[in-house]
Amino acid sequence: MVAGNNLFYPIVGFASCLAFLYMSFGGMWPDFRDHSEQSVSFVERNGSHFMLDGRVFYVNGWNSYWLMDHAVNEYSKYRIKAMFQAGAKMGLTVCRTWAFNDGDYNALQISPGQFDEKVFRALDHVIAEAKQQGVRLLLALVNNLQAFGGKTQYVKWAWEEGLGLTSSNDSFFYDPSIRRYFKHYLKTVLTRKNSITGIEYRDDPTIFGWELINEPRCVSDASGNTLQDWIQEMSTFLKAIDKKHLLTVGLEGFYGPKSPKRLTENPEWWASDLGTDFIRNSMLPTIDFASVHIYPDHWTHVQDLEYKLKFVSTWMQSHIEDGDKELMKPIMFTEFGLSSENKGFDPAQRDRFYKIVFDIIYNSAKNKGSGAGSFAWQFFVGGMEDYNDEFGIVPWQRPSTYKLITEQSCRLARIQGVVPWRTQYLKQLCSH
């Protein structure tokens, strides 16, 4: 066993040194192996929990609404891979993004029923890249706001074609012509065959689920009946086409005029007059999980930070209680953000805000509650300052924020057990 020229001991010493270096530092480097050929299961629901491969699945996620738009052009396309790789490196599991752009620049839907194939291929790329990096997608299907077209564009189309009942934006929810427009859009997207993977969207488990509409409001009918009818009709229509994916409404979480919580939990009096009702809208059997947003800066006139942070805690606990006791469904906080435009803003304040959100989700998960996950609004990669708003961040540019995010990924992973194709990477991330 002794090598010639007494080389045995130097060789053993060198090998021992290499082993020490690997064991000490090898786990610091992320595992960006291609997951596209590995088997991926659909996320399902069992009562108030998401399930994946027989285990409870909790989400540490983020918003990057801009992915499809930036995948259209070659000069910005690299950002999609960069964002998904960065998300995977932080242990994030689901990204929420737009699967719509109606009549705007880089529009997916140019006019009712007319689609730009180049933009559809951009969305194909987003989904395929997410799969490669081991990230799932929550895809929103239309905007209540005017950005990227939204319900305003649908109303404009109907009005221009002489079919619209009224020019009111809320006619999106009750005009028969506009309802037909939107159903055609839903069917086209759900049955789209990805030009890269060859998989129809409705059959692709990379898609975590669908969101009917971002932040719906129907102020012309404060009773909530108009919006409720629309949700029921569209969710039933979608589920008839796609029975495999989870579905949520896209609510902000406000309690309606008949809810006793409107007086105690809503941020201010106006929140019960928007035509939405968190409990009623989320109760429908075609809705698999409830969505809630958290924007204390935009929802209250009180400027005191401590007041806002206390509201965040109460707001979240109230909705998790609803999931536990009334809805019996998972609760997802699909947007949360603290504005950098607040007087005296300091990034440390945002860290405190993030920590409250993460701790409440973690404690709910630890106690097997319905708090199923959260999505920060919003993440970018470097060089995208022109696309930012008062809430967006490049998380790795601030170590304390980055640490909060990765620690949340690891805490949830320890509760649920890690997803098979991410086991190696999460072990590496969480061992530090």
From TrEMBL:
Q: Does the keyword Ion transport apply?
A: no
Membrane spanning residue stretches:
7-29
Localization annotation:
Secreted
Enzyme Commission designation = 3.2.1.78
Q: Which UniProt keywords apply?
A: Glycosidase, Hydrolase, Membrane, Secreted, Transmembrane, Transmembrane helix
Any one Gene Ontology MF annotation carried by this entry is: mannan endo-1,4-beta-mannosidase activity
As for family, the record states: Belongs to the glycosyl hydrolase 5 (cellulase A) family.
Q: What is this protein called?
A: mannan endo-1,4-beta-mannosidase
